[in-house]
Fold each of these.
Amino acid sequence: MTKNENGSKGYLISIVMVAVLGGLLFGYDTAVISGAEKGLQAFFMNAEGFTYTDGWHGFTSSTALIGCIIGSAISGLCATRLGRKKSLIVAGLLFFVSALGSMEPEFIFFEHGKPTEGLIYMFNFYRVIGGIGVGLASAICPMYIGEVAPSNIRGMLVSWNQFAIIFGQLVVYFVNFYILGDHIQPLVEDMGKHFADITPNAQWTVETGWRYMFGSEAVPAGLFALLICFVPETPRYLVSVGQDQKALGILSKINGSSRAARILQDIRDTMVVKTEKLMTYGFICIFVGIMLSVFQQAVGINAVLYFGPRIFEEMGMEDPMLTPMQYQILMGVVNILFTLVAIFTVEKLGRKPLLICGSLGMAIGAIGAAATFGHNELLTVIFILLYTASFMFSWGPITWVLIAEIFPNTIRGGAVAIAVAFQWIFNFIVSSTFIPMFNMHLSEGDDFGHWFTYGLYGIICLLAALFVWKLVPETKGKTLEDMTAMWRNRNKKQ
């Protein structure tokens, strides 16, 4: 039998493309609420014996993030006990159940179309279930890709996961638009009215439209859960559970026979101790991973992604060329294009240069938006686009690359779980504080909240650049096994 000396790029690409479907579902699930929330609010404001307040709606709109925190927190345990592949299958099934349950929360226990307090709890339960799937996928998808990818293209392949997240968000914007069709979102005056009294063209949206938006996720979720069954487990995990021959077979298909043997030996060398404690390589190792996640959210990007239409509407543009939703779609297209910049430059330029340049670009964009908000609408739009574009070629994809590759093999599962959990915690903090900060006023009608919010994000961007410069190691071209030696040496010097 002829040995495969070069490996199969087609095989590698096929399993990576299946894995990044988890990233697409990550983006799809977190963004689907943007099109469904108004119809959902009008529906639940008809609940009998219960007042569905703005506070309740804010909580209902963000319950998926609570699930994300739970999912990411348990991802390390799942990745270690179940393996990377089985954990992703579980995530796919959770996505699927959440999609169908959010579409029809009345299933079995409640009367269809009759909003009640109990139905609100059931709907939120299904959204939390989906959030747990997102939390698992957000941690394990980049981990899976990082563990199967050759070191010379690992950064590029993991970056495709971020592309899939942004693409999933863009896809759901168009899906929601298609589902809405000729119908309209409920108006402010429709809120709290009986279904029969709601604006006729909005009745379908309130009774049915939001259901189809949530249910549409079942299609990619089912496809992901099915396809992930056909990809292999990662070689690093297989070695950790004593299945060296299976690991060698997969490494040979990806890297070629002779190189696979060398990689397998490197993995074995770092797997001698399988029960190393989380702090074995020093506090700084875990701290860097956590702060990468914290800064990725603290720079404020998700406030712009989640509340983009509201931001553009607040500008009060006279005779705008585009509607607020169209500006959001434009921003989504810009995000896609600049994520591609990261994909095709991360292996040439390295991780640190992209993070530092992105931080500085975001700082200029955020501070520029703060200075021009309410004074020059066109400049504000340009600065916001600069802000988001700078994030998309830097902190968006590169954080996931580093989290997937920066930790030693023996602690990767637990360390990634902690880092990603902090990411979702700060996502929730930023998302929940944006509107109160944005609407702050020192006097009647001033724009204090607008410039304060973006000014704060700009300062955090500068701190992020300083953090990367001082503490984050460059990992370009290094194997995952090199991380063990690097952190061990750094820990000895401290």
Amino acid sequence: MPAMLDDSDDIHPLFAGAPSTTEFKKLRKRIVRNTREAIDHYGMIAKGSQDPDAPRPRWLVCLSGGKDSYTLLAVLYELKWRGLLPVDLLACNLDQGQPGFPATVLPEFLERMGVPHRIEYQDTYSIVVDKVPQGRTFCALCSRLRRGNLYRVAREEGCSAVVLGHHRDDILETFFMNLFHGGRLATMPPKLVNEEGDLFVYRPLAHVAEADCEKFVNAMGYPIIPCDLCGSQDGLQRQQVKQILDGWENNSPGRRQVMFRALMNARPSHLLDPKLFDFAGLSIDAPAIDENLQEVPKLR
């Protein structure tokens, strides 16, 4: 396996000036390891993609300009450089017409980094402001409109997957939001197929901690674009859940990782959903059911 990018004369611009401290190198290796683990664990690389004669899949890597999407872009390029990610990458930023959005930051950054990209302008902000009642958060409708446009761009660019920068903490927060407010056990899956059935959606940072993304991007000095331009972030349910998780983490360091492991270790027979486990068919005389063999229905 090749050494880190900055240990070679062939340095990708994304990593130019990377700190040489032991602490940063450990952080970077951890992010790479966790991302590769998620890609392998959830089957984001199709079998046969390693064949040099096979057509290379193309991924649309979605960039918001926040710490998570910068981390996503950098780690995917590092994995490509190491020969561990046999895909072509196209970075994409969707400019949604938010007032004050610094429209030149990402195009200039991507040009400087030599990263193939597409900047798409769609004024979804005006639609959201018109449709959402005063005092309500914009996030849900804004997200749906953004996702629809990204799917369209992916199709136009011949991409097989839309790749998002959600990390471990996003997944945990979504789980608790669904638990507290939605009455269901569900979260952001690391891999899914869109409703139209023609695109994958991947979250390669599923195992990466938010704190690691923040440390990485701050150390690299990437130009961060804030996610509060629309003014609708205060008081969100997600912020409330984040505060709860922060409190648990402060009282018991490592609690987030323990809870995340629980999402990877579900026991349908010890929950209450008869769609996931055949309680009615369970009897004293019947042989024990191997939960690993029981088919679980597909959920959207």
Amino acid sequence: MRYAKRIIAFLVFVCGLILLLLAASFLFMPKNNMKEFGMEEVSANGILGEKENTVDVLVVGDSESYSAVTPMQIWKEQGYTAYVCGSSGQTLDYSMTMIRRAFEKQKPKLVFLETDAIYRKVSKSGALLTKLGNYLSVFRYHNRWKSLSWNDLKGHAEFTWTDDYKGYEYNNAVAPCKNQDYMIPSGTAARIPELNRLYVQEIRNYCEENGAKLVFLSTPSPVNWNYERHNGIAALAGELSCDYIDLNLQNEQLQIDWSKDTRDKGDHLNHNGAVKATHYLADYLNQTNLLTDHRGDPEYEKWNEALKRYEAAVSSAGNGQ
């Protein structure tokens, strides 16, 4: 009888703890997707404010993704809607979170995974915390207690904000790169950590189950990329039957000028470089025959309005491209 009471007491404690965590998660969850409401990675989460089922292409990855892909250019050239859900230092566990979050309201037909994240270490503790945060938002937004208000006690989240740049980070600073011959052919492949491989497979399976094509994308970066990493991703792409675009091997078409097209000595592209990389991707998307040109569709008029604001902002920053 004594042991039964202990078990019952323990179960009551666990149930009470779960209820407390659920209540705290409701309270701490941002009620809108803007910074002042406590939302993390605001630009990336701007996709939550987009009209349902209007995003054709999703881009995930670390800072290489939001530095190299500018969705407004894809819209201008081809009329396809793309959104970059990249974030600084993004690891694959969070890439999976962003993909799932995007698919709650969107049905993209193609997902680009920037491959620098595939080589970025995923810690088991970090992955566990990310998973807990997916189910109980108090683990993700536990620091929000400083900014809680009475509004956090009312209703459910309603995401209304979106980014005119669609997750892209405009930057046209110039810091030349000296290492321009970084893609030296090699027969060896850089090892991909096993946990990372499992996450990539999970992402591939999730995309496949939801009718989206997963494409590996390596954006130009002498600091982060080499032929060994290319070989590792090419092998993984073959194993998972995914397309692989390595823009580091396409400079004859891109014409990246490393004395002008990088903002930090070859780590990331600046806007000039992003324009070149995105033009290549826009052509690739056109050749897939998966997407529809929406430029004449009144349902997408907000994208035309965003394009005007984007071009005005770029022009006022001293670059009219």
